[in-house]
Structures are given as structure tokens and as C-alpha cells.
Design a protein that fits this description.
single chain; mainly alpha; elongated
């Protein structure tokens, strides 16, 4: 995997203007950040599970290591409303409502594995896992949004009464 080249495919997503209008209507009278946390953040976190599972299977594993934690055990998913630090990243757009991140505990070992060093070829596992499961991530995102949003809308409707 030393010659990893990111997948440069384009995925066309449509209907987000209407989706944004629906979310704004849903949030009317409520804090929009709470609505986003209870809908978009939850769905984004769930959607990253396929990539997490693949990354765990691809992460370096040393069977001889019986005393320390393995890198794949430190993998995690985080989803959140982008903060000011996130906004400084080239990967986050000012219009992003929510971001989901697949990461590993930051260490010299994890960075060396993902990006390589002058002495060690890269053995990436995070980026290839997301590349391999991108369509699954989008499918789960769509399914979770279709479930979470109506349920949350019903909850908000009960609160409005």
C-alpha cells in the first residue's frame, strides 16, 4: 500500500437547498445548533461506521505486542458542528454545517504509518478506508437522516404544544 493515491472521484449530491429549507423550518423556535446536533451530527457519526470498521481491519497490528494498546484500538469517529479550529482546515468549508472525522490517537507511530517517514514507507489505512467505503457512508447517512429527522420533528412538535 506504499503507493497509495487518493481516489479522485466526484460524487454528485443534489437536493441540499430543499434539505436546508426543511431543517430551518424544523428548527424554527428552537436553537439551530441543538437541532443540528440532534439530527445531522448523529447521522454523520453513524454514517462513518463502515469506514471505521474498514480502517480497523487495515490498521497496523503487531501480534507480538501483548503489553501495549494496538493502533486499531485507538480509532474513533467524531462528528460535530465545525469550530474555529476546524474552519482553519483546508478540508472544512465555511458552509459546512457538520463534519465527521475518522481518526486515530495522534502519535509518531500513527503519523508514520499513515504518511511515512524518510526511513519508512507509508502504510495508510485511514484515507484508503474512507475511499473504499465512501458510497456506504453516503448510503448510511441518507438512511439515518430519513429516520432521525422525522423522529426529531415529532419530538419538537410535541414540545411546541
Amino acid at each position: 500500500m506504499a503507493d497509495y493515491v487518493p481516489n479522485n472521484r466526484t460524487i454528485q449530491l443534489e437536493g441540499f437547498a430543499e434539505f436546508e429549507t426543511q431543517l430551518k423550518a424544523l428548527a424554527e423556535g428552537f436553537r439551530s445548533d441543538l437541532v443540528a446536533r440532534n439530527t445531522l451530527v448523529k447521522a454523520a457519526k453513524d454514517a462513518m461506521e463502515p469506514a471505521l470498521n474498514t480502517a480497523q481491519s487495515m490498521a497496523h497490528y503487531d501480534a507480538k505486542n501483548t503489553t501495549r494498546i494496538h493502533m486499531r484500538e485507538t480509532l474513533r469517529i467524531d462528528a460535530r458542528i465545525p469550530n474555529s479550529k476546524d474552519q482553519q482546515s483546508g478540508y472544512v468549508n465555511p458552509t459546512d454545517a457538520v463534519i465527521a472525522v475518522l481518526s486515530v490517537k495522534k502519535s509518531a507511530v500513527s503519523l508514520a504509518n499513515e504518511f511515512g517517514t524518510k526511513k519508512m514507507a507509508m502504510q495508510p489505512f485511514l484515507r484508503p478506508a474512507l475511499d473504499a467505503r465512501a458510497e456506504d457512508v453516503l448510503t448510511v447517512l441518507k438512511e439515518r437522516l430519513a429516520f432521525i429527522i422525522p423522529a426529531y420533528a415529532a419530538k419538537l412538535a410535541r414540545r411546541r404544544k
